[in-house]
Amino acid sequence: MKFLDLAKVYIRSGGGGNGCISFRREKYIEYGGPDGGDGGKGGSVWVETVDGLNTLIDFRYQQHFFAKTGQSGMGRQRTGKDGDDIILRVPVGTEILDEDEETVLADMTELGQRVLLAKGGNGGFGNLHFKSSTNQAPRRANPGQEGVERTIWLRLKLIADAGLLGMPNAGKSTFLAATSNARPKIADYPFTTLHPNLGVVGIDNAEFVMADIPGLIEGASEGRGLGDLFLGHVERCAVLLHLIDGTSETVAEDYRTIINELEAYGGALADKPRVTALNKIDALDDEERAEVKATLEAEVGGPVMMMSGVSREGLDTVLRAVRSKITEDRIRYKNTEEEDAPWQP
After folding, report:
1. Angle between the N-to-C axes of helices 286-300 and 251-265, in degrees from 0 to 180, rounded to the nearest 10
2. Rounded to 5 degrees, what are φ and ψ at 28?
3. Does position 188 have pLDDT exceeding 70, yes or no?
4. Which has the least CB within 10 A, 41, 101, 110, 268?
């Protein structure tokens, strides 16, 4: 399945059915009076979050969603049938944007959340509706109300508890593969990761979701490399884990590059809690580790953790540091009582 996190769709609600002009016609009844029914309501366009989706790829092959028009009213006081609604099913974390791509119409952050995007038009009144003591044979009916037509954007922001940041080849995918069941593509060239990956990480009987996004380079906010298109997927994270390649000769510059891109992206992303870790320390001896760590701590202005995704050295310590910065309402605890319970038939 291909990953798609931005889609443009065209929606239109159904128009209401027209009212009917009709008069009762029966044998031996000379003046039956008006009996024209009202038109049916037009269908509405809804958006709903469903389980089992993590991409907007379905909206690449269908961009137009038009609800049904209501049926016109008929004689014998019969009301027209309402038009069928249309439901756009999207993954949790989808933002609904207006045509300008800036105005947020709805933020779908909960499973089963449902939002009305375009309301169907009301049906027109038949001539029965206008009957009165002074107008017993009205010959007028209202047309149905027209539907609403609009263009919207769907933007997916994955909901994760922690996000991975770093330069290309900083070891983010290796870290995610070593700490979760996710199997992202891993290779020895930059920009191996082309789309975000999610993995469930467990530590100390607690689990949280971690997101790995493609690496950033200098000038990403201006469109260089893959740009900052995927930074939106870590906006919802509670903490960011910043991995830095310990074998790089410019660890301080690498750190500053990522921080500058976060600040250029704007929003509250640069102010989120961060854990800084020096990766690939399995390729360094004790003297090199101390030198690189001192250099990076001078640039960060705080503590720097040491780890290796390949040898798994220091992984648990880093995970505990990330776990400590995630609020309790995000953490999912394993049910150890059921695992330790004796077998019963």
Report:
1. 30
2. 70, 5
3. no
4. 268
